[in-house]
């Protein structure tokens, strides 16, 4: 049985660096926490290593490294005491089709990006493109909000402008969610496959140069002049467009 | 000009207690942060006191108390340096009608409760009932996610079972969002006013005794066996039911 007690252990110090985006980018690895995420990582064949709190039962086929609570805490992003941490390789998911794609422009809150990925998976989105200034999908908060969707849906950090131009050549209609005129009300949009949906930054919305090349703007009808949370707006559009197409 | 430099100031120590639910419940007061929330509080006639970081411009008609950054930080729930904090009385909002009501059963994440209130206000919900184990609507995280909706929409902490029984006597149809059979797909529900929508706890869903007395269960159609974030599910239902009624 392998056991690590000290937070000064070299391997632990290396893996704790994965809490930082820079190290995740460099290594291609990331950390997951909790029973559900570990099971998702195993199913996706992405789990490399398991750190398990001493005394806990191992529910996987892998041989875990048992650790003191201090070691687990050093690898955990949460305040509460975690019990299991996994080291994963980033999944490489190739979609069968590109009928419905999402494009996220500068969405900076990890919780929002995670909730969007969760909804995208639930509603059968084929692929998600993220501008390079979006929250990292392997950020622990993003992973937590995504509930493991990251192991099921293909994603890519990319230049959104070029991607939209490419998709349009491939006959994909690009819808922008925007409060700027001219727009169509969501209830009046009857999309044909393939289509893409662009969501913008929480405060500033979609960048003007990207908005300019979208084929149509969509507005979610509201009773007030208020706005919606971006993950909420995304999910309403995905669900409604799916049932209108 | 009033100025407070020390975090040991008696008034500051008293108002800092408002970061705790117990003190908010006792006093009927709560704290808000930031330009947008202060404006909402003023518009709702709920603002009692403003603490403004020294050197900042006062954009309100009230006389602020200028404070050191340390004092502002003591009143703030955020890590980043806040600049303005308001002390508010809890709003008392009486709706004109009860055509569409929300009922939240044990929703414990403050961000979820806030996002639900934000969507409820955007989609013209008349009133929101919350079970007593929901996150406090005056929790700083709830307020932040609600984007000030709390100043526009009436809410009450209540016994949901009794409330549902009362609403049903008043001819309100009560829909539960639930994955348990029997259910109707959301696309097939054609609600008549007045109606209520029940949302359940993030992990456990709606309590069985409450589920038992609801008139119908609604399922949001999904491609996978995954679930949605509760605020996402709520918002999709509110938007879709509104356009189906």
Automatic annotation (TrEMBL), chains A, B:
<dbReference type="GO" id="GO:0032259">
    <property type="term" value="P:methylation"/>
</dbReference>
<dbReference type="InterPro" id="IPR001537">
    <property type="entry name" value="SpoU_MeTrfase"/>
</dbReference>
<dbReference type="InterPro" id="IPR053888">
    <property type="entry name" value="MRM3-like_sub_bind"/>
</dbReference>
<protein>
    <submittedName>
        <fullName>RNA methyltransferase</fullName>
    </submittedName>
</protein>
<dbReference type="Pfam" id="PF22435">
    <property type="entry name" value="MRM3-like_sub_bind"/>
</dbReference>
<keyword id="KW-0489">Methyltransferase</keyword>
<dbReference type="GO" id="GO:0006396">
    <property type="term" value="P:RNA processing"/>
</dbReference>
<dbReference type="Pfam" id="PF00588">
    <property type="entry name" value="SpoU_methylase"/>
</dbReference>
<keyword id="KW-0808">Transferase</keyword>
<dbReference type="InterPro" id="IPR051259">
    <property type="entry name" value="rRNA_Methyltransferase"/>
</dbReference>
<feature type="domain" description="MRM3-like substrate binding">
    <location>
        <begin position="9"/>
        <end position="85"/>
    </location>
</feature>
<dbReference type="InterPro" id="IPR029064">
    <property type="entry name" value="Ribosomal_eL30-like_sf"/>
</dbReference>
<dbReference type="InterPro" id="IPR029028">
    <property type="entry name" value="Alpha/beta_knot_MTases"/>
</dbReference>
<comment type="similarity">
    <text>Belongs to the class IV-like SAM-binding methyltransferase superfamily. RNA methyltransferase TrmH family.</text>
</comment>
<feature type="domain" description="tRNA/rRNA methyltransferase SpoU type">
    <location>
        <begin position="100"/>
        <end position="239"/>
    </location>
</feature>
<dbReference type="GO" id="GO:0008173">
    <property type="term" value="F:RNA methyltransferase activity"/>
</dbReference>
<dbReference type="InterPro" id="IPR029026">
    <property type="entry name" value="tRNA_m1G_MTases_N"/>
</dbReference>
<dbReference type="GO" id="GO:0003723">
    <property type="term" value="F:RNA binding"/>
</dbReference>
